[in-house]
């Protein structure tokens, strides 16, 4: 059964839920033995499958940040009904196996001077600012796999910089999560793009409308073929005005018949930038080594996985 579930995971990016459910049906002793093995396969597969062909592949992670006190082991947010029990059992098992700690991500791989690097420093402090260090406004969106939605926003005039990462896991979510753990769908985080922009050049409402042009808001925890809580879509706001504007855009979508609305509208939580090889992934070449244009106003079709 384990081999069958792992095979399903290796052939479909969103099949970890099936693997998790199978593990939960095993006895405690069996689960403690199988869980690290299954997640190790998942980690190796994800690192190999999604590392850009234009860069050397490495499974070595940056050292975990030195934290004065680590947040307690996190589970999915209570609003994710039917999910907390599964994630609790599996993450508890993994934590026990690892001796009390889940893998955490460092940010030494990020390039100094970039928004991602600055965001990493903010994440280590647990801060959620309203602007970047240069005074540019911030916006954060969940739109499924973050590669494609990032490129879409890169092309918008007025968008200054973008960074992909993980957010919205809740107060008890594991801090500084690594990609492989988020991919299991058990941490409560969702893949997001956090961007800086000039509100004099692009309106926040237009950024929200771009998100809705790329998702089906009536699909819960799904964008395209990507399924799971880690691919849920949402608008995560930094100011009251952003929340007001986002709500108006969402109401317009519902009025146009695009309901029921499963797109989240929440205050932005700490943004954890993803590993450097994910940043501007499609512009760099993606899995196929064919870079896609991030030029402003470019209308070329976006190939998320090709």
Tell me about this structure.
The two termini are 31 Å apart. The protein has helices at 2-11, 16-24, 28-50, 84-97, 115-125, 146-154, 179-183, 204-214, 240-255, 281-284, and strands at 137-143, 159-167, 190-197, 222-223, 226-227, 233-237, 264-267, 272-273. The strands form two sheets. The protein has a six-stranded mixed sheet with strand order 7-6-1-3-2-8, with helices on both faces. With 306 residues, it is α+β, with helices and mostly antiparallel strands. The longest helix has 23 residues, at 28-50.
Radius of gyration: 19 Å
Helix content: 25-40%
Helix-strand category: alpha+beta
Strand content: 5-15%
Low-confidence stretches: 1-35, 47-86
Rounded mean pLDDT is 79
User: What's the β-strand tally?
Assistant: 8
Q: Tell me the overall shape.
A: globular
For the biggest β-sheet, the strand order reads: 7-6-1-3-2-8
Can you write the helix and strand succession as a string?
Answer: HHHHHEHEHEHEEEHEEH
User: Whole-Å distance between the termini?
Assistant: 31 Å
User: Describe the biggest sheet?
Assistant: 6 strands, mixed
Q: Count the DSSP helices.
A: 10
Give the assembly state of these chains: single chain
Lay out the secondary structure:
Elements (H helix, E strand, L loop, with lengths): L1 H10 L4 H9 L3 H23 L33 H14 L17 H11 L11 E7 L2 H9 L4 E9 L11 H5 L6 E8 L6 H11 L7 E2 L2 E2 L5 E5 L2 H16 L8 E4 L4 E2 L7 H4 L22
What's the quick description here?
The chain is an alpha+beta fold. It contains ten helices and eight strands. The strands form two sheets. It has a six-stranded mixed beta sheet, with helices on both faces. It has a two-stranded antiparallel sheet with strand order 4-5.
């Amino acid at each position: 059964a384990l081999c069958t579930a792992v095979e399903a995971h290796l052939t479909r990016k969103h099949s970890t839920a099936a693997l998790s459910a199978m593990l939960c049906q095993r006895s405690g002793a069996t689960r403690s033995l199988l869980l690290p093995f299954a997640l190790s396969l998942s980690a190796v597969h994800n690192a190999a499958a999604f590392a850009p062909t234009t860069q050397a592949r490495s499974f070595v992670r940056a050292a975990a940040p030195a934290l004065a006190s680590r947040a307690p082991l996190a589970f999915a947010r209570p609003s994710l009904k039917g999910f907390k029990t599964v994630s609790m059992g599996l993450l508890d098992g993994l934590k026990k196996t690892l001796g009390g700690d889940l893998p955490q991500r460092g940010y030494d791989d990020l390039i100094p001077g970039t928004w991602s690097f600055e965001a990493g420093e903010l994440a280590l402090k647990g801060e959620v600012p309203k602007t970047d260090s240069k005074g540019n406004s911030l916006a954060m969106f969940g739109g499924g796999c973050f590669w494609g939605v990032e490129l879409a926003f890169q092309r918008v005039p007025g968008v200054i910089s973008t960074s992909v990462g993980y957010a919205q896991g809740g107060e008890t979510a594991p801090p500084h999560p690594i990609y492989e753990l988020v991919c299991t769908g058990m941490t409560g985080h969702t893949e997001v793009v956090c961007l800086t922009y000039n509100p004099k050049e692009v309106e926040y409402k237009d950024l929200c409308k771009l998100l809705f042009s790329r998702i089906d808001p009536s699909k819960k925890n799904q964008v395209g073929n990507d399924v799971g809580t880690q691919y849920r879509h949402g608008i995560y706001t930094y100011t009251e005005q952003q929340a007001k504007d986002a709500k108006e855009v969402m109401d317009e979508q519902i009025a146009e018949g695009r309901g029921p609305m499963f797109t989240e509208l929440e205050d932005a939580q700490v943004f954890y930038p993803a590993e450097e090889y994910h940043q501007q992934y499609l512009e760099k070449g993606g899995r196929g080594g064919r870079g896609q244009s991030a030029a402003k106003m470019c209308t070329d079709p976006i190939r998320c996985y090709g």
